[in-house]
């Protein structure tokens, strides 16, 4: 699993990246009440806002950690947004993206680096 400084996580299987927000981000947001996932077929560049998550505290954009095309969206989140709180780094994923530039993964943090980053916040 890889992480961004914006608290997204990425799990890669071949050329498909499953993307969500980190457990840390979900805890910081509090109770998630709404999630807008991207449409299948949409393409995004690394850093583009591709989803929205709203909680009782705030609304936040979720940024694409890699460039590519959405091949699957987690539609469960539209009716069960609390899944993000319950399992942010598992069943609470937002979308699966077909990666267009695998070299972009090189700039992401592994778990140890992300934990060290969190310690600086």
Automatic annotation (TrEMBL):
InterPro entries assigned: 2-oxoA_DH_lipoyl-BS (IPR003016), Biotin_lipoyl (IPR000089), GCV_H (IPR002930), GCV_H/Fam206 (IPR033753), GCV_H_sub (IPR017453)
Free-text comment on the cofactor: Binds 1 lipoyl cofactor covalently.
Named cofactor requirement(s): (R)-lipoate
Sites of N6-lipoyllysine modification: 57
Domain Lipoyl-binding: 16-98
Protein origin, superkingdom: Bacteria
Keyword RNA-binding attached: no
Keywords: Lipoyl
Pfam families per the UniProt record, alphabetical: GCV_H
Oligomeric and partner information: The glycine cleavage system is composed of four proteins: P, T, L and H.
Record function comment: The glycine cleavage system catalyzes the degradation of glycine. The H protein shuttles the methylamine group of glycine from the P protein to the T protein.
Family: Belongs to the GcvH family.
Name this protein carries in UniProt: Glycine cleavage system H protein
């Amino acid at each position: 699993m890889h992480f961004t400084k914006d608290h997204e996580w990425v799990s890669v299987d071949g050329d498909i990246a499953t993307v969500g927000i980190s457990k840390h981000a979900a805890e910081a947001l509090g109770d998630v009440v709404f999630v807008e996932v991207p449409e299948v077929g949409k393409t995004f560049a690394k850093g583009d806002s591709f989803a929205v998550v709203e909680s009782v505290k705030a609304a936040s954009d979720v940024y694409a950690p890699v460039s590519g095309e959405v091949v699957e969206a987690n539609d469960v989140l539209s009716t069960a947004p609390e899944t993000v709180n319950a399992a942010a780094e598992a069943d609470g994923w937002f979308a699966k993206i077909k990666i267009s530039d695998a070299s972009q993964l090189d700039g992401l943090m592994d778990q140890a680096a992300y934990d060290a980053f969190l310690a600086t916040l």
